Amino acid sequence: MKSRKMQQSDLAEVVNIEQLANQFPWSRKNFEGCLKSKHQAWVFVDESKDIQGYAIVQKVVDEAHLLNICVKPSAQKQGLGRKILNHIIDYSNSISSVLIVLEVRSSNKRAQQLYISAGFNEMSVRKNYYPAKQGREDAVLMGLDLDLMFFFSDE
Ligand SMILES: CC(C)(COP(=O)(O)OP(=O)(O)OC[C@H]1O[C@@H](n2cnc3c(N)ncnc32)[C@H](O)[C@@H]1OP(=O)(O)O)[C@@H](O)C(=O)NCCC(=O)NCCS
Q1: pTM of the model
Q2: Are the beta carbons of 146 and 97 closer than 8 angstroms?
Q3: Is residue 115 flagged as an active site residue?
Q4: Which of 27, 50, 137, 143 could be 130's S-S partner, Cβ–Cβ 3.0 to 4.6 Å?
């Protein structure tokens, strides 16, 4: 699996995966906005150059905000999500971020499990943050302290 910068020409494929993988997918406009704002956006492609996953990170002062991470449903549960997250952690370290933060639906236990296994902690809960099938759903705010990670990995 190789990573490269997401381009405008990737958006049809990216939006298609986004719709397959999420109950409340981002729109094409959301992705266009991220590219326009020059957020870091990568796609992860297989040998046939087909997109299998993608991620978008916004740098906010000394923090990295993980805005979107997604793996094509047919490629899930094979270690790609973890690879993408490691790529994001490496990138965040390379720009000297001290913290990676993200919001995840309280019902999205798969993603939470991935973040926890990578060392993320729950920081707080934003009540009724997301629209849900019935009413609204909480967002769990999670963070990975990169300074602390560096400190422990140095021992
Ligand atoms: C969350 C997501 C990115 C994980 O990608 P993936 O390629 O399936 O993940 P991996 O195969 O690398 O698995 C990494 C870890 O995630 C967790 N995980 C993944 N799939 C899981 C499942 N079906 N049930 C429980 N845990 C799961 C496990 O902790 C797993 O580690 P393990 O294999 O050692 O048990 C993927 O499910 C996805 O794209 N979901 C839709 C979009 C989404 O929810 N994005 C996150 C928004 S905050």
Answers
A1: 0.94
A2: yes
A3: yes
A4: 137
